[in-house]
Amino acid sequence: MSQNQFEIIKRIDDNGKEYWSSRDLAGVLEYTDYRNFLGVIEKAKAACENSGEVIHNHFVEVNEMVKIGSGAEKPVETIYLSRYACYLIVQNSDPTKVVVAKGQTYFAIQTRRQEKTDNLIEDNKRVFLREQMKKHNVSLTQAASMAGVEHYAIFQNYGYKGLYGGLTMQDIHNRKKLKKSQHILDHMESEELAANLFRATQADAKIRRDNIKGEASANLAHYEVGQKVRNTINSLGGTMPENLPTTDGVGKARNRIKKAEKIRKIKNAEQI
């Protein structure tokens, strides 16, 4: 049995997302009785939950129509599996089977490749959003200055306090356990950066649009915008920004992107 057999049974949905059928996978892993394979799936689900993942994101129960002869079809209970779900399944399958060992190797390698791809996508999003934050903070500073703000650090803290449920910039810095020289925006993942970018752009727009004058009024406007962004996140069931994970510096993300691009160019040159 070739490792490529796992690639052969892979399916692609209408959105271009890959998945596997539990029925197909059971056949490849040589489970003649599908009921025995369901026990393996339950163990994989438990491992999925213990790893902090949402089970239904990786194991989707469906009724699949299969032919039974003479053109007739009947619904059969099937589970659509993500690559990660398949990885957990082969880890919990009979290790004495040669095909299971091959499956463990295949899905471990492919899962790691996917993780690298996902991480690179996140790096690119972070770098882009951090650059946008720099540009819009300059514009926000100008708007605040036009409104009469003289103490910009205090003005910024009002925005952070609105978005972070009362936390100041220093509170966020301490919460992220950063060094004195490190900037909080450099250690935010894309989701948190996007929330801050929305805060900055909308505070800028409001101050200019409403022709806000006076430091106190500008501070209050920044706070209210931050609070409304927070309320929106809450209404959507999102994670509050102060509870999002701290990540490494955005400079390291830039270096990873450069390294990946260098490797890509070398591979392209080798293919010419």
Oligomer class? single chain
Report on the biggest sheet.
Answer: 4 strands, antiparallel
Q: What's the helical proportion of residues?
A: 55-70%
What would you call the shape?
A: elongated
- Round the Cα radius of gyration to an integer and report it: 25 Å
List the helices and strands and how they pair.
Elements: H1 4-8, E1 11-12, E2 18-21, H2 22-28, H3 34-50, E3 59-69, E4 72-81, H4 83-91, H5 98-147, H6 152-163, H7 169-175, H8 190-209, H9 215-235, H10 250-271
Antiparallel strand pairs: 1-2, 2-4, 3-4
Helix pairs in contact: 3-4, 4-5, 5-8, 5-10, 6-9, 8-9
Give a quick rundown of the structure:
The chain is an alpha+beta fold and 272 residues long. It has 2 domains: 4-94; 118-271, no CATH class.
Structure explained in plain terms:
- The protein is α+β, with helices and mostly antiparallel strands.
- The chain folds into two domains: 91 residues; 154 residues, no CATH class.
- Strands 1-2-4-3 form a four-stranded antiparallel β-sheet.
- β3 and β4 form a beta hairpin.
Q: Can you tag this structure with a few keywords?
A:
alpha+beta; 10 helices; 10% strand; 2 domains; 62% helix; 272 residues; 4-stranded antiparallel sheet
